[in-house]
UniProtKB/TrEMBL annotation:
<feature type="domain" description="GGDEF">
    <location>
        <begin position="388"/>
        <end position="521"/>
    </location>
</feature>
<feature type="transmembrane region" description="Helical">
    <location>
        <begin position="288"/>
        <end position="310"/>
    </location>
</feature>
<dbReference type="InterPro" id="IPR043128">
    <property type="entry name" value="Rev_trsase/Diguanyl_cyclase"/>
</dbReference>
<feature type="transmembrane region" description="Helical">
    <location>
        <begin position="60"/>
        <end position="81"/>
    </location>
</feature>
<feature type="transmembrane region" description="Helical">
    <location>
        <begin position="194"/>
        <end position="212"/>
    </location>
</feature>
<feature type="transmembrane region" description="Helical">
    <location>
        <begin position="256"/>
        <end position="276"/>
    </location>
</feature>
<protein>
    <recommendedName>
        <fullName>GGDEF domain-containing protein</fullName>
    </recommendedName>
</protein>
<dbReference type="InterPro" id="IPR029787">
    <property type="entry name" value="Nucleotide_cyclase"/>
</dbReference>
<feature type="transmembrane region" description="Helical">
    <location>
        <begin position="29"/>
        <end position="48"/>
    </location>
</feature>
<keyword id="KW-1133">Transmembrane helix</keyword>
<feature type="transmembrane region" description="Helical">
    <location>
        <begin position="316"/>
        <end position="334"/>
    </location>
</feature>
<keyword id="KW-0472">Membrane</keyword>
<dbReference type="Pfam" id="PF00990">
    <property type="entry name" value="GGDEF"/>
</dbReference>
<dbReference type="InterPro" id="IPR050469">
    <property type="entry name" value="Diguanylate_Cyclase"/>
</dbReference>
<feature type="transmembrane region" description="Helical">
    <location>
        <begin position="162"/>
        <end position="182"/>
    </location>
</feature>
<feature type="transmembrane region" description="Helical">
    <location>
        <begin position="131"/>
        <end position="150"/>
    </location>
</feature>
<keyword id="KW-0812">Transmembrane</keyword>
Length: 533
């Protein structure tokens, strides 16, 4: 298993910045991609600034250089779709994202051709507009495929939130972006004119509603796609607004927003291409974000009413009073929401603590025997599927009964705790360490051969014997351990692996303790007399 695959398989949840930063730190290729993206945005910003008074440079920047990130985003999206398309929902969503990226690229190619072939012709609407709108319509489809049924189906509150957001954004979009253009268009022109802002509103509604649903785990590539399309939709709304005022041109600063969207999509495609990601998992107890749809709907309603009153020349005092009342109600809702969120967080933490205690040894803080058995069964099944090696080390503290008899049980407990700490210091990320019972510990080593396990066991033996343990009242006391190592063989199960490790441990104790013994192919037999520990 490569390091990249291992990282993706264990990627935990968390906020979007944490997950992405964690991935960037671990993947040099993604680091270079991000740095190149930032450099390209800086270069494009400089060229846009220089283009303000240079029409030819503006046309070259907006119609030729502009294409580069869009091409990269389309290519990485197609590669990700090809590799992951037959997998889970995340992979199937990338098929839709790839199709959207290709349509976007087709639209840009047509637009660039028209910019040079017929710069002064009135080509609106053109095939480019059709490609753009089809590309935008696929974006909500891809997001819904990615999330599938992860958005808490059947939740009446969630449905109401989505409807409020949709109504608010649709109202604002119609008032600001659609209505001003209807008088100057008709027929197919009017359809295209209305389709642009409505498609952007659909994207924004989809992103906001999915954000409100809350998720404990979200694939990093889908996070990046969501950010990219959020930037894209916001930029496109700005484009529609500039079109109304006839202020959009090749030197528009809005083009940087499209470039940022394409670069983010390209990085998302790289993540999907390099890492097999799991599906989105909804939060069992997520944050209650009811205030968000209420704010959107209230702001939209107040804005539309204010515009209508201003056009009619009516006084604003009743509107202001109504706005204050609504704001007070919303603030009260916010306080209630915060109390509910705090209680939900406390309940979630309590449940997590109960789950932790159920599989944790209270003295050492290591996993207990129950968790070890579950992990052993899982790792044996995984090793059989993948063919990867699996080893087990069993440790027994030498002469532990003498420590208890000579210094008391408190000293014995201290010896167990310090042994657990030394075991934890030697163990690797991904290993499973547990207190197996009494003075015995077990160390499960996935993806580790018998030779590698023996080396790790020897390192642990040296760590135990090299430094005395500091016992209460009695002070430093020499301590050592006997260790048995076994590696899973094809016909064996977890029980057989544990039996082989135990027999190797008995052999270590027979041969004088403070040593490592590795189970041989002919299996050890249990000695007739096992030295007391």
């Amino acid at each position: 298993m490569t390091g990249a695959t291992s990282l993706a398989a264990r990627e935990p949840g968390g906020t979007a910045p944490e997950a992405i930063v964690r991935l960037l730190r671990a993947d040099r290729a993604l680091q270079w991609a991000a740095l190149l993206g930032v450099a390209w945005l800086a270069l494009y910003a400089v060229l846009t600034w220089r283009s303000q008074d240079d029409a030819e440079l503006a046309r070259f920047t907006a119609n030729v250089l502009y294409l580069l990130p869009v091409v990269v985003a389309a290519v990485t999206g197609c590669l990700a779709a090809r590799r992951r398309g037959r997998g889970n929902r995340t992979g199937r969503a990338w098929v839709v994202f790839a199709a959207s990226g290709l349509l976007w690229l087709a639209g840009e190619l047509v637009w660039s051709y028209q910019a040079y072939a017929a710069p002064d012709a009135d080509t609106y609407p053109s095939p480019a507009d059709v490609f753009y709108i089809l590309s935008g319509l696929l974006i909500p489809v891809g997001l819904l495929v990615a999330f599938g049924r992860a958005g808490r189906p059947g939740s009446r509150r969630a449905t109401l939130d989505v409807l409020l957001v949709a109504l608010g954004l649709a109202t604002l979009g119609w008032e600001l972006l659609v209505a001003p253009q209807l008088d100057d268009s008709s027929g197919f022109d009017r359809l295209i004119t209305v389709a642009y802002p409505l498609t952007d509103i659909a994207i924004l509604v989809c992103l906001v509603s999915l954000g409100l649903s809350g998720h404990d785990r979200l694939p990093t590539s889908v996070r990046l796609v969501g950010w990219a399309y959020l930037v894209f939709a916001a930029t496109d709304c700005g484009y529609s607004y500039q079109t109304i005022s006839d202020s959009y041109g090749d030197a528009s600063w809005l083009n940087i927003g499209y470039q940022l969207s394409a670069i983010t999509l390209a990085i998302g495609g790289m993540v999907a291409l390099r890492y097999p990601e799991a599906e989105a998992v909804p939060a069992v107890l997520g944050r209650d974000l009811t205030i968000v749809p209420l704010l959107v709907a209230a702001a939209a309603a107040w804005f539309v009413v204010a515009v209508q009153i201003a056009e009619a020349g009516l006084p604003f005092v009743p509107v202001v009073v109504a706005a204050v009342i609504v704001a007070g109600l919303l603030f009260r809702q916010l306080m209630v929401t915060r109390d509910r969120t705090r209680l939900a967080a406390e309940l979630r933490d309590a449940l997590a603590e109960q789950a932790r205690l159920a599989v944790t040894d209270p003295l050492t803080g290591l996993h207990n025997r129950r968790h070890l058995q579950e992990a052993l069964d899982l790792e044996v099944a995984r090793a059989r599927r993948s063919g990867a090696p699996l080893s087990l080390v069993v440790l027994d503290i030498d002469h532990f009964k003498q420590v208890n008899d000579a210094y008391g049980h408190a000293a014995g407990d201290a010896a167990l705790v310090q042994t657990a700490r030394r075991l934890g210091a030697v163990a690797r990320a991904g290993d499973v360490i547990a207190r197996h019972g009494g003075e015995e510990f077990a160390w499960l080593l996935p993806d580790t051969s018998g030779e590698g396990a023996a080396e790790l066991a020897e390192r642990l033996r040296a760590a135990l014997a090299g430094t005395p343990v500091d016992l209460p009242e009695s002070g430093p006391v020499e301590m050592s351990g006997s260790l048995g190592v076994a590696t899973l063989r094809a016909p064996d199960d977890g029980t057989a692996l544990m039996r082989d490790a135990d027999r190797a441990l008995y052999r270590a104790k027979e041969h004088g303790r403070n040593r490592v013994e590795v189970a041989s192919d002919d299996r050890f037999t249990v000695p007739t007399a096992v030295p007391a520990g």
